[in-house]
Amino acid sequence: MRPVIGLDQDLTRANTLGLPCVAEEVVDVFSRDQLASLIRQVGDRRLTLLSGGSNLILPDYLPGMTLRPRLDYWWVERCGQDALVHVGAGVNWHRLVMALASKGWWGIENLALIPGHCGAAPVQNIGAYGVELADVLESVTLVHRDSGAVESLPAGACGFGYRESRFKGEWDGKVIITDLTLRVSRHGAPKLGYGDLASRVGEAPAPLAVAEAVCQVRREKLPDPEQLGNAGSFFKNPVVEAARAGALRESYPGMPAYELEDGRVKLAAGWLIDQCGLKGWRQGHFGVHDRQALVLVHHGGGNATELLAFADQVSARVAERFGVTLEREPRLA
Ligand SMILES: Cc1cc2nc3c(=O)[nH]c(=O)nc-3n(C[C@H](O)[C@H](O)[C@H](O)COP(=O)(O)OP(=O)(O)OC[C@H]3O[C@@H](n4cnc5c(N)ncnc54)[C@H](O)[C@@H]3O)c2cc1C
């Protein structure tokens, strides 16, 4: 299939927040070679990468080229009790999870129902229910923006951390991910330590049962972007020094806090927002979700500028009460 080019494209339905956006030029590419040769012709034009649009804040007008990698293929290479799964950037993440889990492969079942495409998964090292992409990622293949050169890198080179990677840091805007290789196994053990997952599955569950339980919990907790615009968690859980967490715990003994290996402490942004009385708060076109305070929702009719102003008010209230700074999770296009 040849690249598909559209001018003045409406992207309102191409982002899960449902923000209105018109893009000057949108190009869909279907293979790594197509992408590499296109990149060589783009020169210095502004380039935006758009996959599933579930972690992006789009402006009213997006100048330059918006590139959508549609590399939609995957296959499994058996290696004894393990397998390497080779996946194109355009594959829907949740469909991959369910396909592998239903075939009895362990590894990514806890990451079911995360929206978006595989190519964006390494950007913020997607994670949920105690599992992160970095736990199963073997390597990433990418195209360099400046030269069109193709390179494969081991996962260890990607600088993964909590919702972090070099793709968001020094490689931002410089590379386009085209393929991932994941390692899955026939001999995994279910990871049921988060929330009430364990009570939702029987004894010795198969990967599919775990994935289905995760979907069930997520459907109960999170708004469906098809019904109510959102980008999942709008803020990262803040990480603070142990002394700061200790002082907060004295004032708020019920505060959830998770000690990290480096001695710092991760707080629950949703709890902090909730404590400020903001759960369910609505102003204009935007609101804090009434079941999950970490999720900001778009009731329709708003735009990116209004959303950012609303989010600033939420983080200002948290900073005022707890002295903790919230960092935004979705990225600005
Ligand atoms: C309801 C809901 C629940 C969510 N739950 C979770 C969760 O539990 N855990 C979690 O981690 N995230 C969660 N998210 C956030 C989001 O789903 C993930 O970040 C996802 O990986 C984004 O994929 P996408 O294809 O939509 O990326 P997009 O939003 O299209 O892009 C995200 C970023 O990646 C860049 N990008 C996209 N494709 C490429 C590429 N091929 N190469 C390089 N850069 C690229 C974009 O330019 C942008 O900066 C949730 C979102 C929603 C709406």
Characterization of this structure:
With 333 residues, the chain is an alpha+beta fold. The chain has three domains: 4-69, Uridine Diphospho-n-acetylenolpyruvylglucosamine Reductase, domain 2 (2-Layer Sandwich); 74-221, Uridine Diphospho-n-acetylenolpyruvylglucosamine Reductase, domain 3; 229-332, UDP-N-acetylenolpyruvoylglucosamine reductase, C-terminal domain (Uridine Diphospho-n-acetylenolpyruvylglucosamine Reductase, domain 1, Alpha-Beta Complex), CATH 3.90.78.10. It has seven helices and 20 strands. It has helices at 32-42, 93-102, 197-200, 207-221, 242-251, 269-275, 304-322; strands at residues 4-10, 22-29, 47-49, 56-57, 61-69, 74-79, 82-88, 127-128, 131-132, 137-144, 150-154, 175-185, 229-233, 239-240, 257-259, 265-267, 282-283, 286-288, 295-298, 331-332. It has a five-stranded antiparallel β-sheet with strand order 6-7-12-10-11. The protein has a four-stranded mixed β-sheet with strand order 1-2-5-3. It is globular. Residues 16, 49-56, 69, 89, 114-117, 119-121, 123-124, 126-128, 167, 176-177, 222, 225, 230-232, 331 line the site of flavin-adenine dinucleotide (FAD). Belongs to the MurB family. Keywords: Cell cycle, Cell division, Cell shape, Cell wall biogenesis/degradation, Cytoplasm, FAD, Flavoprotein, NADP, Oxidoreductase, Peptidoglycan synthesis.
